[in-house]
């Protein structure tokens, strides 16, 4: 499982910009706390090579999967939570449960700094959950 700022990274397909080129359908990792995005480590070398070629060709946009065979997506995302397979509320609740479990460990170890970090993470996740629930509750149309 991949982590960023202590939170589990979420795996999904996304679009990234490399200089002036947009590269679509790239396996990425996303942090729900600090919102950082990074190329999945299993395809990072392929991404960098493709991005350099696309930039030298001055391509405005390309699709990663047109050039790199992503035949086993389940293996690529095996070590992280896959956003595509779980609703966002479920993902956020899972992150909250994980942070609460870690908080109990931090308290047993009497690690105050880790406790503060986990309380911050729980605060951010709680705010995201409330915001997402409000968005879901709004009538569409």
Task: Using the alpha-carbon principal axes, give the shape.
Answer: elongated
Mean residue pLDDT: 84
Q: What is the number of independent domains?
A: 2
- Give me the CATH architecture of the largest domain, please: Roll
Strand content: 15-25%
Please report the number of helical segments: 5
Strand count, sense and barrel status of the largest sheet are: 5 strands, mixed
The span between the termini is: 39 Å
Instruction: Enter the CATH topology name of the largest domain.
Output: Ubiquitin-like (UB roll)
Protein name: YgiT-type zinc finger protein
Could you explain how this protein is built, in words?
The protein starts with a strand and ends with a helix. It folds into two domains: 3-83, Ubiquitin-like (UB roll) (Roll), CATH 3.10.20; 88-137. Helix content is 49%, strand content 22%. With 141 residues, it is of the alpha/beta class. α4 (88-109) runs antiparallel to α5. Strands 3, 4, 5, 6 and 7 form a five-stranded mixed beta sheet that branches. Strands 1-2 form a two-stranded antiparallel ribbon. The longest helix has 26 residues, at 112-137. It has helices spanning 44-56, 64-67, 73-76, 88-109, 112-137, and strands at 3-4, 7-8, 10-18, 21-30, 37-39, 61-63, 81-82. This is YgiT-type zinc finger protein.
């Amino acid at each position: 499982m991949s982590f960023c700022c202590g939170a589990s990274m979420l795996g999904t397909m996304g679009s990234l910009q490399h200089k002036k080129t947009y590269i679509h359908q790239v396996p990425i990792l996303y942090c729900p706390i600090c919102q950082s995005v990074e190329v999945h480590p299993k395809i990072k070398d392929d991404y960098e090579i493709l991005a350099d070629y696309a930039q030298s060709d001055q391509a405005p946009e390309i699709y990663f999967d047109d050039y790199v065979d992503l035949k086993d997506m389940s293996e690529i995302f095996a070590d992280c939570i896959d956003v595509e397979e779980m609703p966002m509320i479920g993902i956020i609740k899972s992150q909250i449960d994980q942070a609460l479990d870690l908080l109990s460990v931090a308290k047993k170890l009497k690690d105050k700094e880790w406790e503060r970090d986990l309380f911050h993470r729980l605060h951010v996740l709680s705010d995201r959950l409330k915001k997402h629930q409000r968005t879901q509750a709004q009538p569409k149309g």
